[in-house]
Amino acid sequence: MNIEFKLVAHGSEEWKSAVRLREEILRKPLGSYFTPEELEEEKDHIQVIGLLDNELVATSVLVPENHSMKMQRVVVKEEIRSSGIGSEMMLFCEEIALEHGKSHIFCHARDTAVNFYLKNNYLIEGAYFPEDGIPHVKMSKVIA
Ligand SMILES: CC(C)(COP(=O)(O)OP(=O)(O)OC[C@H]1O[C@@H](n2cnc3c(N)ncnc32)[C@H](O)[C@@H]1OP(=O)(O)O)[C@@H](O)C(=O)NCCC(=O)NCCS
């Protein structure tokens, strides 16, 4: 499998494709969309995409916060899940966080994704809380 991860510019065609993929997976099932305000805020964020034979199959967004990097909007295309692409994307995100001088990486994990993050050595921090109407929990990993 020839998966390549890279960073893309906010507003680029690849970013627009990534927004469509994550909107399909994360928002449409909830009956919502990324608002223009949310997408505008992403100007300050780091955009990650994964290409499998030039097809965009994975994406995530990194948000620098003090000594940490927050990872959000993590998705892999449904048809090719459970083949390790999500875990490879975690490693790529951790590399980018290190390059930005961060010592921690964290996310707000959906309850359905907790096992995925545990498998990638993230630890649960604190109690579950609702976000977008779904139970989430903070999960983090020391990277430096
Ligand atoms: C979470 C997600 C990115 C993992 O991607 P992936 O390419 O399947 O990840 P990997 O192949 O590296 O790891 C798969 C592991 O994730 C977990 N997993 C399996 N199905 C899952 C699902 N529907 N949702 C979350 N985690 C799942 C399992 O532990 C699985 O291990 P297994 O294959 O040994 O059973 C992908 O399932 C996804 O896009 N889910 C929907 C969006 C989502 O929930 N994103 C996270 C928001 S916090």
Question: Can you offer a commentary on this structure?
Answer:
The protein has 144 residues and is of the alpha+beta class. It has one domain (3-142): Gcn5-related N-acetyltransferase (GNAT) (Aminopeptidase), CATH 3.40.630.30. It is built from 4 helices and 7 strands; from the N terminus they run E-H-H-E-E-E-H-E-H-E-E. It has a 7-stranded mixed sheet with strand order 1-2-3-4-5-7-6, with helices on both faces. Strand 4 (68-76), helix 3 (85-99) and strand 5 form a beta-alpha-beta unit. It starts with a strand and ends with a strand. Bound molecules: coenzyme A. Coenzyme A is lined by residues 25-26, 74-76, 81-87, 107, 109-110, 112-113, 115-116, 119.
- Number of domains in the coordinates? 1
Radius of gyration: 14 Å
Shape: globular
Give the names of the bound compounds.
Answer: coenzyme A
The CATH architecture can be given as 3-Layer(aba) Sandwich
Low-pLDDT runs of 5+ residues are none
* Class per helix and strand makeup: alpha+beta
Kindly report the CATH topology. Aminopeptidase
**Tally of DSSP β-strands:** 7
Keywords:
Aminopeptidase, alpha+beta, 144 residues
